[in-house]
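In response to the reviewer comment on reproducibility (Comment 2.3), we provide here a single inverse folding case reported in full, input and output, so that an independent group could reproduce the run without further information from us. The C-alpha cells appear first.
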C-alpha cells in the first residue's frame, strides 16, 4: 500500500488532478460563504457594539431583551428590522467583554447594510492573511506541494464557510494572532534581534502586543493560543496585549456607571447561557454544569505549565496542543474548527507520523462529513471521539517532552 501511495504521489498527473478537484471545491465554498455572509452575518455582534458605543448597557439589554423597547438608535433599530424582514428576528446576546465590543466600533458607526458587507470583506482579507502567514510560521515546514492542498481543504470545508456565512469572529482573531507572532520575530529572519537597533526592537514589541490584543476578539480560541508568547518568553508583548483591554473595560465601566468587576461578570453571565449548546466541547459533555469550568481551569493550568516546562524548538507541538484544547475547553460550535489545519504543521516536522492519518480522517470528518449527516448525534459522537483521541495524544506527547526535559 505504501509503495502504491508513493508511486501515485510522485506522478505529476496526481497533483494536477488533486489541485483541480480541491480548487473547484474551494471556489464553490468561497462563493457560498460570501453569499451567505452578505445576507446573514447574524453572529457579528453589531447590535451589542452599537448599543455600547451609544452609552447603553448591552448586557442588561441581553438579559431582558424586548425588541419593542429598544433604545432610539437608528442603526440598532435597522439591525433588528433587517432580520425581521428576513423572517428570522434576532435578540441581543452580548457575550463579549466591553473592550472587545469596542474593537467593532468602526463597523457599528455605519448602517448595518454597509457594516455587514464590510465585515465579509474583512473576513476575506483575514483569510488571505492566514493563508500567507501560516506558511511563514507554524506550517513553514510543510512540503511546498502539500501546503496548497491544506489551504484549499480549509477553504472547501464547512467550518470556514460557515464561519464566513454567520459572521463569526474567529477568522479576524486568528489572523491577528498570526500577525502578532510574525511581527514578534518568533520565526524567520525577524528573530535575529541582535541586528536591530533598540528603536526598531521597541516598535516591534509594541506592534506585536497590540496585534495580539486585537486577536482577543475571539478569546475562547486565542486566549489559550496567546500563552504561546509565554512559551517564547515574549513577556512584553503579552503584557502589552492586556493593557488596552484593561483601559477599555475601565472606560466602559465609567460610561455605563458600573463597577470594573461587573464589566467582567456580566458578559460571562450572558455567555454561560450558551455553555451547553456547543458541538463537542466540555460544556456539552458536562451539560453546562460547574464541572465544565473546573476542567477549563485545569486545561489553562496545563497550558501555562507546558509553556514553562516544554523545551525550546517545540513551537509546532505547543501551538497544536493549544489549538486542540482551545476548541473543547469552552463553548464552540463546529464553525471554529477550521483552525484544526494548523496541526499539520507539527506532522510536517516528522513526528507522530503514524498518527497523521487518524488526524487527517478527523479533520475530513469535521470539514465535510458532519455536514452530510447534519451534525446528528451519531456523527458528532464519532467525530468527537476521534478528536478527543487526537487531543489526548498531543497532551501525552507534550507531557512526555516536559518530563524528559525536567529529567535532564
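Designed residues, in position order:
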Amino acid at each position: 500500500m505504501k509503495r502504491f501511495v508513493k508511486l501515485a504521489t510522485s506522478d505529476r498527473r496526481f497533483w494536477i488532478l488533486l489541485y483541480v478537484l480541491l480548487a473547484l471545491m474551494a471556489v464553490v465554498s468561497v462563493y457560498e460563504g460570501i453569499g451567505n455572509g452578505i445576507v446573514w452575518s447574524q453572529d457579528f455582534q453589531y447590535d451589542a457594539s452599537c448599543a455600547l458605543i451609544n452609552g447603553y448597557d448591552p448586557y442588561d439589554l441581553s438579559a431582558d431583551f424586548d425588541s419593542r423597547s429598544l433604545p432610539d438608535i437608528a442603526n440598532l433599530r435597522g439591525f433588528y428590522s433587517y432580520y425581521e424582514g428576513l423572517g428570522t428576528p434576532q435578540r441581543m446576546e452580548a457575550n463579549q467583554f466591553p473592550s472587545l465590543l469596542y474593537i467593532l466600533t468602526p463597523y457599528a458607526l455605519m448602517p448595518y447594510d454597509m457594516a455587514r458587507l464590510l465585515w465579509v470583506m474583512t473576513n476575506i482579507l483575514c483569510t488571505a492573511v492566514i493563508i500567507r502567514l501560516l506558511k511563514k510560521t507554524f506550517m513553514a515546514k510543510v512540503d511546498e506541494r502539500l501546503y496548497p492542498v491544506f489551504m484549499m481543504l480549509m477553504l472547501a470545508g464547512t467550518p470556514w464557510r460557515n464561519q464566513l456565512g454567520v459572521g463569526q469572529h474567529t477568522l479576524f482573531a486568528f489572523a491577528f494572532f498570526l500577525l502578532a507572532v510574525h511581527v514578534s520575530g518568533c520565526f524567520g529572519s525577524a528573530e535575529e534581534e541582535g541586528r536591530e537597533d533598540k528603536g526598531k526592537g521597541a516598535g516591534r514589541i509594541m506592534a506585536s502586543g497590540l496585534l495580539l490584543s486585537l486577536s482577543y476578539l475571539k478569546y475562547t480560541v486565542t486566549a489559550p493560543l496567546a500563552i504561546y508568547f509565554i512559551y517564547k518568553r515574549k513577556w512584553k508583548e503579552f503584557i502589552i496585549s492586556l493593557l488596552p483591554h484593561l483601559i477599555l473595560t475601565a472606560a466602559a465601566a465609567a460610561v455605563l456607571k458600573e463597577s470594573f468587576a461587573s464589566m467582567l461578570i456580566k458578559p460571562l453571565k450572558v455567555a454561560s447561557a450558551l455553555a451547553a449548546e456547543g458541538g463537542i466541547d466540555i460544556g456539552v459533555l458536562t451539560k453546562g454544569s460547574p464541572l465544565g469550568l473546573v476542567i477549563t481551569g485545569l486545561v489553562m493550568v496545563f497550558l501555562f505549565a507546558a509553556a514553562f516546562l516544554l523545551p525550546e524548538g517545540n513551537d509546532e507541538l505547543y501551538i497544536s496542543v493549544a489549538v486542540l484544547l482551545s476548541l473543547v475547553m469552552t463553548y464552540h460550535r463546529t464553525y471554529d474548527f477550521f483552525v484544526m489545519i494548523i496541526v499539520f504543521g507539527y506532522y510536517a516536522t516528522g513526528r507522530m507520523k503514524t498518527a497523521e492519518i487518524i488526524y487527517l480522517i478527523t479533520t475530513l470528518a469535521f470539514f465535510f462529513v458532519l455536514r452530510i449527516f447534519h451534525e446528528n448525534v451519531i456523527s458528532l459522537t464519532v467525530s468527537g471521539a476521534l478528536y478527543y483521541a487526537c487531543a489526548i495524544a498531543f497532551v501525552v506527547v507534550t507531557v512526555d517532552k516536559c518530563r524528559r526535559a525536567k529529567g535532564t
